[in-house]
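re: that complex we talked abt at group meeting.

here r the seqs, copy pasted straight from the sheet so there may be weird spacing, ignore it
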Amino acid sequence: MRSFAEERDWDQFHTPKNLSMALIAESAELVEHFQWLTEEQSTQLPSEKLKEVEEELADVLIYLVRIADKLNVDLAQAASRKIDINEKKYPAAQVRGSAKKYTEY
Amino acid sequence: MRSFAEERDWDQFHTPKNLSMALIAESAELVEHFQWLTEEQSTQLPSEKLKEVEEELADVLIYLVRIADKLNVDLAQAASRKIDINEKKYPAAQVRGSAKKYTEY
Amino acid sequence: MRSFAEERDWDQFHTPKNLSMALIAESAELVEHFQWLTEEQSTQLPSEKLKEVEEELADVLIYLVRIADKLNVDLAQAASRKIDINEKKYPAAQVRGSAKKYTEY
Amino acid sequence: MRSFAEERDWDQFHTPKNLSMALIAESAELVEHFQWLTEEQSTQLPSEKLKEVEEELADVLIYLVRIADKLNVDLAQAASRKIDINEKKYPAAQVRGSAKKYTEY
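got the structure back, here u go
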């Protein structure tokens, strides 16, 4: 991705601020696929639709990796650290079956 | 992540529709960090702020992986396929230094 | 709102680019209220939750009006024009009961 | 807008949950217009671009009004109440020229 941007001289546009905008725009294209579907329908996408959703997921990942690279963040490590934090924030015994936000506990 | 959700009986909430909403909400927390910064400032975050941004990036990745898992999408493969598509959509020789959308070419 | 920003010397931050980021961040706080609710539940919010949702709607409107002001856009006129466009894009007789995007017709 | 939805039998899709998704998707289309522009450029849009931005602003307003209607929220009142809250959260004398979040004061 780094060389993709460099070959196109797009590095100048790829500030973390701008990339966060591109990331949310791609996330929104994902949301758009689901906005008029029921939750049930969203679990059973026709293959044509699934292919489009797959492309949106890819776009989100691409910008996510790009921001992480720009900020020298190790994404995998950050995610694994965050999962540990979440394990503590939401103890399984306490939150089972509830979608309340942790601050409400 | 799968077992994290299962242990909490949260699987019922994790439909692709709902997860896409959680994903964009996390993306927005990232955007929020950058909204009043200049592009320049966004490239030089103080370490305290960078740590917070790192957590948001992790949250986005967590939900992204979760949706992909729910839809049986191979994220890495999807991203690599998307990069190939982008190589063709935006030929380096043609788009160099321009941020125009490919449809404008 | 103009004087609110001026009194705080916040006008410098209120470029359309930045305001669009603030707008989407507020929209996401709205989304967050609904992400783990069923569609049914989202139509029957408890009064405490409704009050919070009301504040998010207000925030979205505030930034929306602010961007429009910065760009000299007459929001009411723009909306009324857009409604006319939509009337034509989605003829009632043709689209009744379907949530397909107009491009699919 | 109410009759627009009713004539098309779209009321069934217009739950607050779904409308919040449509709202953020429209907000993202706005963000997309600005993502590769500098802040400066975002203040001086060419007229063709401004026309497109105007349509996105209209779309955001349309969905915002639609959600408010569905939840029986008086948008104007909610916004005016929120402005009062903001006046107190961010006293002009204290926050002048700073974009720090109010919690940091």
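couple things i noticed - Chain D has six helices and no strands. The helical segments of chain D are 2-7, 16-34, 39-42, 47-70, 75-89, 92-95.
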